[in-house]
Amino acid sequence: MPRVPISDLPDVPMGQLPPHLEVQRTRVICTSDAPLHAESIQYSGAYASMGMDNSLRLESFSNDFKVEVVRVSDDGRDLEFDMIGIDAALANAFRRILIAETPTMAIEKVLIANNTSVVQDEVLAHRLGLVPIKADPKLFENFSENDTANEKNTTVFKLHVSCKKGGPRVKVLSKDLQWLPNGSELQMESTNLSAKPQTYTKFSCSQDSMPEFSNNPISPTDDDIIIAKLGPGQEIELEAHAVKGVGKTHAKWSPVATAWYRMLPEVIMLQEVKDKKADELVRKCPVNVFDIEDCGDGHRKATVARPRACTLCRECVHGGDWDKFVELRRVRDHFIFNIESTGALPPEVLFIEAVKILEENYYWNISVRRGNCANTLFNTQMISLEKCLHFSSPCRPRSRNLYGKPEARNRNGKKNLIKEDWRMKAAGRRNKCSTGDKSSVNSYNFD
């Protein structure tokens, strides 16, 4: 029997997939045992025999991609929205950027003048670093080890709390942190007694004179964060310097308590569930997804009333033959995204900043690839967005000797000429990403 091309079969529509393949491509089936079709199909020619192009075009992506805000909490710190028309890799990129790459202000250096509490200096400095600071990081410059603390890269707080002898215990709260817009007030120790005393910062002007801070002073996001507790006769006097940083350096710079997403759940009724079986189905669901509806003929049937509330616990398909009546799915390109801000920045601002950072990383990676590879892939009209955002260039310098002269080779094993400026930039970027926590605690005793 001669072989017939699939395009010649009358029951196969060209340009679209049969229902079972469309479900496999766009849904994740959650059975009682394990999920099915969990891996997405990225190959552009996977369905070429049916006349369907599976490649990702920028034009179709821009038309299909949508962001719909669902809920904003009363305090403005929690945001829930839907991202529709993207891949899981891109959704996860937003999540990682929100947690680790969006800059904020946090206390990095603590100068302790006096601490007679039971809390050690190191623990006290660590607790101060985790207090979220309400300040716009775009108004500050990045601070490095060799920089001088000034009004453009540092903001200073003062903390001086004491407990009188014979009095009750005193709580040291975050509201006790007083912003010093003129900079440091502690004087540096010097062996030259005739020299003019110097402080730990050099502010050329007061920060509260800037219009950005005059109406919105810098302060902790919450006033009731407990830093320490003082007993009678105990005292804490210190100065804290906050600088700009990102969460990949230390968690204190992370602007979110958490950022997470889940695929949109989909509950499908394969058969009608009526009367007593409908009541049993409603009782089986712990999150009240199903409701009872009157059929009008003296019978009642179960309906899916709140599919978004489904947690995919799969209680409704466990036991008996319930998998013949109910099927649980997840929509592969529809993500329910939640951002819980620490209060340093509103969640909607954080998401916009994450988009900007992703765009900057995208163009930076393209520039590196074009500088290192002669045969760039970005001059074509059809671009795979995932490759653009998550590629590993074979022509990058090796990480073992970033500042040396490593041999970069392409896929054919031939050497490539690498511009020195891009090597240094890539090395500096990687070295910056690998730095650990450099917060220090200096203790000063003043007589």
Automatic annotation (TrEMBL):
Q: Which GO terms describe its biological process?
A: DNA-templated transcription
Query: Could you name the domain of life of the organism this protein comes from?
Result: Eukaryota
Major location category of this protein: nucleus
* GO molecular function (one): DNA-directed RNA polymerase activity
Q: Where in the cell is it found?
A: Nucleus
A GO cellular-component term linked to this record: RNA polymerase I complex
Q: Does the keyword Nucleus apply?
A: yes
Which UniProt key words apply to this protein?
DNA-directed RNA polymerase, Nucleus, Transcription
Residue ranges of every copy of the DNA-directed RNA polymerase RpoA/D/Rpb3-type domain listed in the record: 78-368
Q: Which SUPFAM superfamilies match?
A: Insert subdomain of RNA polymerase alpha subunit, RBP11-like subunits of RNA polymerase
Q: Which Pfam families match?
A: RNA_pol_A_bac, RNA_pol_L
Q: Which PROSITE patterns match?
A: RNA_POL_D_30KD
HAMAP family per record: RNApol_arch_Rpo3 (MF_00320)
Family affiliation: Belongs to the archaeal Rpo3/eukaryotic RPB3 RNA polymerase subunit family.
- What name goes with this protein? DNA-directed RNA polymerases I and III subunit RPAC1
